Structures are given as C-alpha cells and as structure tokens.
Amino acid sequence: MDNNERKGKEHKEKTFSRRDFLKTSGVAAGGIVGGSLLGGLVGMEHGSNNAQQPESATGSDGAEGGQTAQAETYDARTFFSRSEDFETLAAATERIYPEDDNGPGAIALGVPYFIDKQLYGFWGANGTDYKMGPFRPMASDTHGRQEKLNRGDMFLLGIRRLQEVSQEEHDEAFHNLDEETQDELLKMFESGDVEVPGMRAEAFFSLLRNTTIEGVYADPAYGGNKDMQGWKMIEYPGPRMGWTNDIQSEEFQSLEPESLRSYQGGGV
C-alpha cells in the first residue's frame, strides 16, 4: 500500500468514526430525550466533572501571541452577575455537551461565556421581536413563542429554578451534584415536569440546549468554539474566502479550520 492509499484509508476511517459520533449524540438530528441530544450525550462517560470548575473555560493558559489575545474573550462575565447562576449554567451545558474521547466539552469550548455574551447583547433582549402580546406562555409549541419574557429573563428564571429544584430534591447546589443526578433534573425540565412561573420548563430547556450547541459550533469570534475545537471534531474548515487552489487538486484536501478572525486582522 503506497502513501496516498494509506492516507486515504486513514482519513476515511477518521471521517466515519466522527460521523457515527454525531449520529449517536443527536447533534445532527436534534430532538428531545429518548432520541435526543440530551438522551444521546447525557449518559456518556467523560473525565473529571469539569462543571464544578467553570474557570477552566477561561483559556488563560499562558500561551503567547494570538492564543492569549483570543483567550481573553472567554474570561469575563457580562450578563450573569451572580457566580452561582453562572456555575449552574456551566454545569448544565457540560451535561448537554460533555467532554469525552471525541474532544472537549461545553466548558472547555467556552460555551458558558458564549451564552453570557449573547444574552448581554441584542439577542438576549429579543431586540427585533414583536412584544405587544397577547402572551400565552403555556400554549402549544405549534403556536410559536408565546412568552412575555425575553431570552435573558428566560435564562435567569430557568437557571434559578434549576437551582431551587436541586436544593429541594437533593439539598445541594446543582453544580455540586454528580452527573447522573444532574441529568435527572435536566430531564425533568425537558419533559415539563417542573413548574416555572411565566414559562414552560421545556421552553427553557430547549433554549438552553439549542444555545449550548450554537456555542459549540459558532465561529469563535462570537465567544464559543474555543480554538475551533468544535469544528475540528467534525472536520469543518470554517468560512473561507475561496476554494480555487483546493478544488483544482486531484487529491483529497484536509484543511485546518479558519475563523472570521483570519479575515478581520488585528487578532480581533
């Protein structure tokens, strides 16, 4: 077997294993528990319980040059003023997208900071949404979004209700619970078995899950997907200005991902 055949075989095996991971995890298909993202990911074993140490997502590892500049976007909260709220958020995102043999989890990818950054801005305030009512927060999903709350309010209310349920059921902070117990509580929210004033528990869980996945795969310029590790796991090359040099090659091209930062200059 020559070098080209060996490289082709190795790439094929690598590609299929990662595609199988996405199918198993539910990232490609979405959904709810029992064929869901949480159902597929939540039981996976991974290393230490990183959810108890959200500071590990800061990326302040003493690296030089561009890595240090990039890491600075992860290490400051702008929306969550209470540490306990942010710790609960971090723990919940890590259970939705945990670290395992395929790569880093939500915390290491900077997802909690991505969510914090998005909630602090225009998106968190539902800046372009119609806001005049009528409001029917308990209406069916088929009626569209019916909450009077904006996304920032939904996150704060949902996260704090998750803390309350954790204390009521286990007399312990959510981020201090073992992973299996955390999963049980998140499933209660997903199935709507918890009452949350002003909104449906499943609406909060859906928002939390979707935003977590967005933080894993969004361009790092938005605050998540640290070091493009989310893209590297699925071999996504990122947004590129052109493909001319690559498409003219008769050999398979394996490209390192590039972020929007590559075209903005100044390391911003």
UniProtKB/TrEMBL annotation:
Biased composition (Polar residues): 47-59
Residue spans crossing the bilayer: 21-44
Stretches the record annotates as Disordered: 1-20, 44-69
PROSITE patterns with a match to the protein in the record: TAT
Naturally occurring in which organism (per UniProt): Salinicoccus hispanicus
Domain of life: Bacteria
Protein name (record): Twin-arginine translocation signal domain-containing protein
Keywords annotated in UniProt: Membrane, Transmembrane, Transmembrane helix
